[in-house]
Amino acid sequence: MTVAELETPALLIDLDIMEANLARMAEYAGAHGLRLRPHTKTHKIPELGARQMALGAAGLTVAKTTEAEVMVRSGTKDLLIAYPVLGRKKLDRLMKVAGETRVTVALDSEYAARELSGAAQKAGREIAVLAEFDAGLGRVGVKPEEVVGLARVVSSLPSLKFDGITFYPGHIKQWDSAGEVAFQELGKLLKKVCGESRAAGLEPRIVSGGSTPTWFRSHELPELNEIRPGTYIFNDRNTMKSGACTLDQCAASMLVTVVSTAVEGQVIIDGGSKTFSSDLCVGGGVGHGCIPEAPGSVFRRMNEEHGYVDIAGTETAFEIGQRLRVIPNHICVAMNLHENVFGIRGDQVEKCWRVEGRGKLQ
Amino acid sequence: MTVAELETPALLIDLDIMEANLARMAEYAGAHGLRLRPHTKTHKIPELGARQMALGAAGLTVAKTTEAEVMVRSGTKDLLIAYPVLGRKKLDRLMKVAGETRVTVALDSEYAARELSGAAQKAGREIAVLAEFDAGLGRVGVKPEEVVGLARVVSSLPSLKFDGITFYPGHIKQWDSAGEVAFQELGKLLKKVCGESRAAGLEPRIVSGGSTPTWFRSHELPELNEIRPGTYIFNDRNTMKSGACTLDQCAASMLVTVVSTAVEGQVIIDGGSKTFSSDLCVGGGVGHGCIPEAPGSVFRRMNEEHGYVDIAGTETAFEIGQRLRVIPNHICVAMNLHENVFGIRGDQVEKCWRVEGRGKLQ
Asked: Span B3-9+244-354: which CATH code?
């Protein structure tokens, strides 16, 4: 099938770019002796998880137990659930997954540790645990000075194995001066947390962090030995803005059709918040995506099925029925809206993947 | 099953409230002699479309051909695709649907009309057409003075039947003074457009408009004879803000669990942009939803799987593992993220619906 034969809106993945992105990260991790445990919430496709493993990843990361059930089909021998697992049904599911692969859970409370320990004991499984601390995002994670206490609780509980420390540097989104300062602070914090843990006799075998915006500077943090980037497989407009990729490293684009030119200075495309998601541009930038073939155009607004593209500032001519490709602001949430996505090489559609892990809220 | 047995996040529909919402709209439409063709993009569930028909709806509305293929299972004898249908495959699908039920398409260009006519001719079907004009939103729709021209084109094309005029008053979101002025303008515009159409010998059998924020004032527009509200079946925080419903008329809520209390003055819930969508509050209000059981709390930020609830301003106490219900900003986009949703009465889960029309982008 050719790209021209696809209906719109369609999420396209340029396979050559994706492969180059995967190879670049694998090489970087290898060159710096970093374990790579990619976050698969970006793609939610077991075949792509398997590809990441084949390129040398040490394991895979998921956000929830329902994603774990899907991603275990990748054949990975190591799965990190980077989220506290609460509730009996979720814990039951997790224990089933733990029968198929080694499972690690990141958590930040004694409550979550005790629940996990109880379920693991009952199931006769050992679960590895990473103690999560707040590196500056202010989301989850204990205070740095509380890591040792949490690690002690984990170590003391039956059927749990304290396996190290984790954090998510989501507060570093751009490499401006604030980003640089935050990165330097992170280095100091990691040194302190790891030092205190070791002094308490709790060796952090894994020190896991890293996001897509920070991936290429991970080797500057000597304590870090594992990274978990997700978005890098495809990249998106926000990753470009962060400085962690260029336009020609963006593998994902939305193929859309111009459906109306009735309002002057504007065209309407057949994708809105149910196609792209309504995620804004990180750092307060304008628009919901960029259209490289129409420089100066602004994807200014959206409703559920309508995208409003302001064309006053572009030389490009538009007509009804014309097709465009849009780089989304945030590929992880866009991917989550599509039942199927298409792997392309040039004009050829070589792959149709079902996004198997999407919508698995229950 | 009881609500307590559900995993989180779970989208709950209070069946008594939903039934009351459906009845209220049916009564209003009946009392004022308005055809009701509810927009099913809100629920995407054929069984709920059938319920709307059973309560007297004249037909149903969808946003795309893939939704039409799903919603025809409701048994409706009349389906409006409120979106121009472009592209051979979409037109082929539409013609198949037209073999099962009466189909109407809203469009705003000669291009879309000619494409539709060609496909209908080839398939041996007659498709009804509503000519769409821009009532002030600036999205799709020809200028009011161009309606007659578009209607003439439609009337002249084989296999199409000009059936009337349509618009979407999406620019009226709140009943402040700007909303009032816009509503008065809309009345004048409708009178003019309908008058011109009649004068040209093109009787608009259907004059279709209406949104959820404007529904209860539709009878003040004498030309209007059909309304297409969608959100009213569940309502949401934005509908409340518009003045078109009260809190006790909100049927949909997200059941979530507190997963972290590590950061002071804040709790993290297990729902973010992949559970609620990142749609903001209409009119610039703060937050991603409201938590009626914790007055003064603010659902301030979200990431993909994390919701940040600021609890500094509430008296309510929170602990890890606790469950909360959140009224989302925009139920249509939230529904679109869930594979299954749950109909409840009190503590009992009486229904589990698959959201059959979601993710049908291809």
From this structure: 2.40.37.20
